[in-house]
Amino acid sequence: xxxxxxxxxxxxxxxxxxxxxxxxxxxCLVGFTIDMLIVLLPPQLGSIEWRVxxxxxxxxxxxxxxLGAALTIFGSIxxxxxxxxxxxxxxxxxxxxxxxxxxxxxxxxxxQQQAVSTIDSQASQLQTQLRNAQANPxxxxxxxxxxxxxxxxxxxxxxxxxxxxxxxxxxxxxxxxTVGNLAVVGLGLLGxxxxxxxxxxxx
Length: 203
Fold this sequence. Notes:
Number of strands: 0
Shape: rod-shaped
């Protein structure tokens, strides 16, 4: 029984196990980097929509990054210098992830406000056209009455409110998902970095 229970530990500590972990970890990290470069280019840092979309895709793909980081740390056990350097790197990236949460929150609120302003502007333009039509009944067709215009105006107001609420809800859901993923991965990277530094002192 003792030999059976110690078998996984021996396998994990074997050079082959560490080598496999390093290879898979490197593949995850390189794959994540390539994906992010494709998403990043061409950068449009002045566009709120682009920043929100980039952070969303960045957070969605971050599980691959933290998996690669964990495997790399495991595969580096025994190589103190490399383990210490990569663990410090994980700590720094974890802090960046947490700081990016504030950027995601700010951009989400700005995008929500921008969407609402756009809808209000479009609704205001339509209402202006309807008021002009009411003020000049002669411009109306024979089959269009003032009552028809009032009914259309009320319908537009109701639709504008519905569209605004849907826009707010969609933007908030997207922002909450992005911030949640960034925060979880950031905390995970901080934890990995601390564990890696502790291991670098022991092995």
